[in-house]
Each structure stands twice: as C-alpha cells, then as structure tokens.
Write a structure and sequence with these properties.
single chain, 93 residues, mainly beta, six-stranded antiparallel β-barrel, 6 strands
C-alpha cells in the first residue's frame, strides 16, 4: 500500500455557509489497516479513523467517520471530540 498518493479533499465547515474548500490530503495507514483489520468488530461506530489525513492551517488532521447503517459521515476534528469540518469528497489528482 502506497502512502505517497497526492489527493485533494473537498471540505465544508459548519461556519462556511455551504461553501466547500479544497485542501491537501494524504493517505497514512494505521497498523491495523495494514493488517486488513477493522477498527470495530461490526464496522460501525462514532469515531472510526480512516486512512486519510487532511492538511489544515499547516497541520495534518486524521479523517474520522461516523458509520451507522449503510452510510457514514466523514469529518476531521480540530480538537479531540469537536467535529469541525465535514469531508464531502476525496479525489486523487
């Protein structure tokens, strides 16, 4: 698994009045992802870390996903426990 993929994320914050911004994104796998394991036994949860990271204000932030049922909402946290930005789309460029 290659971690050198250059990607672009389309991100919307709760403060942005439905405006999306493009931010730099990279893939950084966690140890359990490299072993093809799941974060939870069911695959569902509130704060599931993904392999994507987004650069905001000069700092890399992990993209988390809240998954219940057949869909999920991805977001990044500016501080632990605060969901600041919703990640709408991540595209490889």
């Amino acid at each position: 698994m290659n971690e050198d993929n250059k990607t672009l994320a389309l991100v919307q914050g709760h403060w942005s009045n439905d405006t999306c911004i493009k931010l730099e994104c990279k893939v950084k796998y966690l140890w359990w992802q490299l072993k093809r394991l799941s974060f939870t036994a069911s695959g569902y949860g509130d704060r599931i870390p993904t392999s994507h990271m987004i650069k905001l204000n000069g700092r890399w932030h992990r993209v988390f996903c809240q998954v219940w049922g057949n869909s999920g909402t991805c977001y990044i946290e500016i501080e632990h426990g605060t969901r600041e930005l919703i990640v709408h789309n991540i595209n490889v460029i």
